[in-house]
Write a structure and sequence with these properties.
By secondary structure, the chain is of the alpha/beta class. It has 8 helices and 7 strands, in the order H-H-E-E-H-E-H-E-E-H-E-E-H-H-H. Helix 4 links the parallel strand 3 and strand 4. The termini are far apart. Keywords: Ribonucleoprotein, Ribosomal protein.
């Protein structure tokens, strides 16, 4: 009986969240966010990320506030559109984020950095990898910590996808989202790319965006599929990657440092 209740807990939590966002004007239909798992966090939560959490599910996973996620994608896109594309770096050490980051860069003209981030890339002008960005988009604060730290040193703006367990240190704009799932990362980067083009006046409507979400999704090899099926997405990923609404008064505004940097630009 307990096992049955546990299985039913997830659909009930998803249903409750769907009811909370019913009628909201979002960038995509609410079910796209829910089906991609973009709102699913981890069992751990950092102090900085508590304000982005809608509720905790019976299985222990935190559920992120979808409306805030949607709002932050809009803000991020407007900000990205104001910076010359050649001065933007999009970083992803995380395997599942590499295809989304590369497709975003290809679509918008940003510079993708999806292999190992060489220390000094942003700070050492003598390095052959040297690149001095004005804005850095990070896929996951922990795995992209070196890039975030260096961006902070050169006073580049940092936008990062953050799950419930992440620290937001040195991050100017948080996009609260599942930054571990393939479908979630594909959806978030796809939306960012589309909204950036719209903000630049290169698209008049959503329908003019010819790229599909599937194009932004990391494709699993047969071996990766087997590993994922056997142990879940996180286990499969580790195997191949070696080397909210409840409180409407919560502060959803970008950080003060973010607003100051935006004003300077």
């Amino acid at each position: 009986m307990a096992e049955k209740e546990k299985k039913e807990a997830k659909p009930e939590a998803e249903k409750e969240l769907e009811e909370q966002i019913a009628g909201k004007v979002l960038l995509v239909p609410a079910d796209k966010y829910l089906k991609s798992g973009a709102h699913i966090g981890t069992k751990f939560k950092s102090g900085e990320m508590k304000k982005y959490i809608y509720k905790k599910r019976p299985d222990g996973l935190s559920v992120l506030d979808v409306q805030t996620l949607d709002e932050r994608i809009r803000i991020a896109a407007q900000t990205i559109a104001q910076v010359p594309a050649e001065k933007i770096a999009v970083v992803s050490r995380r395997l599942y984020g590499q295809t989304p980051a590369e497709k975003f860069a290809e679509t918008t003209g940003a510079k993708p950095m999806t292999s190992r981030f060489v220390p000094g890339t942003f700070t050492n002008s003598r390095s052959k990898e040297f690149f001095e960005p004005k804005l850095v988009i990070a896929t996951e604060p922990e795995s992209d910590s070196q890039a975030i730290e260096e961006a902070s040193k050169i006073k580049a703006m940092v936008i990062a996808l953050c799950s419930t367990n992440n620290s937001t240190k040195n991050i100017d704009l948080v996009i609260p989202a599942n930054n571990k799932g393939r479908k979630s990362l594909a959806l978030v980067y796809w939306l960012l790319a589309r909204e950036v083009l719209k903000a630049k006046g290169l698209l008049a409507s959503d329908e003019q965006f010819s790229r599909s979400i599937e194009e932004f999704e990391y494709k699993l090899s047969e071996a990766e599929k087997r590993a994922e099926e056997e142990g879940g997405e996180e286990r499969g990923k580790r195997t191949f990657q070696r080397g909210g609404f409840k409180n409407q008064k919560q502060d959803r505004r970008p950080s003060r440092d973010f607003r100051r940097k935006s004003e300077r630009r």
